[in-house]
Design brief:
By secondary structure, the protein is of the alpha/beta class. It has helices spanning 51-59, 103-106, 113-124, 131-141, 147-152, 160-173, 190-207, 218-224, 242-247, 252-259, 298-302, and strands at residues 7-20, 23-36, 40-44, 66-75, 78-84, 87-90, 96-99, 178-182, 210-215, 227-232, 235-241, 308-311, 314-316. The protein has an eight-stranded mixed beta sheet, with helices on both faces. It has a five-stranded antiparallel beta sheet with strand order 2-1-4-5-6, covered by helices on one side.
């Protein structure tokens, strides 16, 4: 993508490790992601592959045991993170809001919805007059019925779906350019999930908000987002438009993920992917999917594949496509 003025969020060569009792967990291994203004991007992959860590890196809310070893993050043209020769420049991003996975944990049970929203309006949006009005308008934008009453309620007085909508309202109250949604429908039933996803999609379209949606559901990603980044064990293995990912999945991991989706046609039981994600204490030297890949060669175990552009806008990190494309991602890091 060449139009840098149109990029809302750019993550370059991001590496994040965690210091634990047994050693250092090498989680994110050179992540590169671009989100254009007004674009909806899905970040999909198995549990534990680093999706939430990526979002927390953007927000600057990583745990104290996190170690940033390299990377650069730019939001709306402003640099918010840069790691250079062990020197770390970092500041909280403006114009970015996050919807967390568990609304019960995200909301303080001892304060009313209104008290919590007022803080967001005052300090995140910078509004000092008509604060209550702005807060109630945010609740209305999130399609909450009787917003004035909900403003006075405590979190425990609301259902799970309503609490998640409150979290979306809090994100909107900050007047963001970018929303980071971390599996926002995990604890909701199917009908409420659909409502929340349609709400996020509609708000993104109406307000021209860029969005990263973290999910492990390819179906959700396909219906909600313009492009999909497939993540495996802290690396981006493939990305393209949602249409191309499903029409022509290239990486063996993406192919197995799609093959694992249950079908309603009764064509047998979908098979899972054999094996498990690698131990981050001692991850594979080369491609992290190699131990589970039926096509892996010696090169795969010893060298990390760059992102090859096999067709326009469709990148895949796999040596199977080395001869099919001479073009690699401009931020690809082979180390």
């Amino acid at each position: 993508m060449d139009n840098f003025d149109n990029i809302a969020l750019k993550i370059e060569n991001l590496r994040v490790y965690y210091k634990v009792y047994k050693g250092v967990l090498k989680v994110l291994d050179g992540i590169n992601i671009e989100v254009m203004k007004g674009e909806r991007v899905a970040l999909v992959g198995e549990t534990g592959c680093g999706k939430t860590t990526t979002l927390k890196s953007v927000m600057g809310i990583l745990a104290k045991n996190a170690i940033l070893t390299s990377g650069k993050i730019t939001v709306m043209g402003e640099k918010i993170l840069e790691v250079d020769e062990e020197r770390i420049f970092q500041k909280r991003p403006k114009g970015v809001a996050m919807v967390f996975q568990d609304p019960t944990a995200a909301l303080n049970p001892v304060f009313t919805i209104g008290e919590q929203l007022d803080l967001v309006v005052r300090y995140a949006a910078g509004v000092t007059t008509n604060v209550k009005e702005h807060a109630i308008n945010a609740l209305k934008l999130a399609r909450l019925p009787d917003a004035s009453r909900i403003y006075t309620n405590y979190p425990f007085q609301l259902s799970g779906g309503m609490r998640q909508r409150v979290c979306i309202a809090m994100a909107l109250a900050a007047n963001p350019n970018i929303i980071l949604a971390d599996e926002p429908t995990t604890n909701l039933d199917v009908t409420i999930q659909d409502q929340v996803l349609k709400l996020l999609k509609r708000l993104s379209t109406e307000k021209e908000l860029a969005m990263i949606l973290v999910t492990h559901s390819l179906g959700v990603a396909r219906e909600t987002c313009d492009r999909i980044y497939v993540m495996y064990a802290g690396t981006i293995v493939e990305y393209a438009s949602s249409e191309h990912i499903f029409k022509n999945p290239l990486h063996p991991y993406t192919q197995r993920l799609i093959a694992s989706i249950p079908r309603l046609t009764g064509e047998g039981i979908a098979e899972g992917i054999k094996g498990r994600i690698p131990d981050y204490l001692n991850p594979p030297k080369g491609c992290r999917f190699a131990p589970r890949c039926e096509f892996a060669t010696e090169k795969c175990f010893n060298s990390k594949p760059p992102l090859y552009e096999v067709e326009k806008g469709h990148f895949v990190a796999c040596f199977l496509y080395e001869k099919k494309s001479e073009v690699t991602h401009p931020n690809a890091d082979n180390s």
